[in-house]
């Protein structure tokens, strides 16, 4: 069990998702970058997140405004791989344009 997130990673966690299907997956990221897409801190977490995304009909990223323009070490996927981003602040015009072009809906909650 990963101490910080209290989650399980690795091959066993990935195999556990092999037979799962769901309508929506919600997850956080360490970075949302125009060039590198969505990223997290480790390759293992990125692999597990990709598997969760493959099992879901809709991918929803939960990210506070500090994540925009940042990138982590493990690449989860491109902006086109996600359907919705939920955040607490408006994004920059450049980011908003790229997200719109990628087909990503942005929901700002206050």
TrEMBL record:
Name of a matching Pfam family: DeoRC
PANTHER family the UniProt entry points to: AGA OPERON TRANSCRIPTIONAL REPRESSOR-RELATED, HTH-TYPE TRANSCRIPTIONAL REGULATOR SRLR-RELATED
Designated name of the protein: Transcriptional regulator, DeoR family
All copies of domain DeoR-like transcriptional repressor C-terminal sensor, residue ranges: 1-88
Database matches in InterPro entries: Carb_Metab_HTH_regulators, DeoR-like_C, NagB/RpiA_transferase-like
